[in-house]
Amino acid sequence: MSRKRPTIRDVAREAGVSYATVSRVLNGRDWVSPESVKAVRDAISRTGYTANPHARSLATGKSGSIAFLLTEPQHLLFEDPNFSVLLRGVAQALSDRELTLILMIASTPVERSRAVAYLSGGHVDGVLLVSPHSGDPLLRQLVQAEVPIVACGQVLGFEDTISSVSADDWGGGRSAVEHLLAQGCRRIATITGPQDTFGGVYRLRGYTDALTAAGITVDPDYVVHGDWSRESGAAGMRTLLDRAPDVDAVFAASDAMAAAALPVLREAGREVPGDVRVVGFDDSGLAATTEPPLTTVRHPLERISDEMVRLLTDVIAGRTPLSITVPTSLVVRGSSPA
User: Fold this and answer.
1) By CB atoms within 10 Å of each CB, which of 23, 173, 223, 314 scores lowest?
2) pLDDT digits over 110-145, tens only?
């Protein structure tokens, strides 16, 4: 005969407190003494009590689930190492808080429509928004539905309404170009990220500000736009070699684009770093595996993922939207040695 599943009343009896006190501890209420919290937790351990998630959801109005919403094509989740690092960090941070992760991808109109219906239907307590693009109708729909959101990177046009955790994209872009200038480079090109994303805009701004501060006019022929992907990095490098064959350095706004630029330069007979220096952005696992290894700006995704989850719990609790910026650092390797 199976043993009866322990109940809240069993925990209360074991802890020597009231049913209401156990309920408050389980639901994370603040007005319980530390002694009572310890007594309840010890009793839970001794009795083997586990909460019924369905009953708790009905009682608290919370699902205990958080959505990780990626607004990029599905294949990028596996091709771009940044997304997997961020997802892994978020999963651990949520697990530490006994919250469930729900992975959602919404890159097409149909996927966006389904995502909005699901997320605004009370199935999750909040959303961790990854790679948001300004002008995406999904953003306004989620805000209007009053879904708690924290974005990875500020959301252009929603800076005051959507909380975010960002790398210092401007500072990182500027430090990459300042490094190239310090090595004597003067014909510095860039392959940007998407210009409807905060990272794409501010990494480019860091590039232009560093050149301007050095007294170098920004030449439009030295600027091509990419979308973070390898394909756009290779295409961008070919365009740069056609437009500006005298280029002596390239700052690519992602490691994937920088890595794809390397074989294009080799095919064109340009040695790295002898003829052209290359700097990326991310310091993903990819950066150390290229030939030569990439000098790059470190994107602190582990810290960003933890901060996103921490901030989302604050937003869910009703706190005012807030933006956090995490510092970056330059990692020097063979593609542009010091």
Assistant:
1) 314
2) 998 898 888 888 889 999 999 888 888 888 888 888
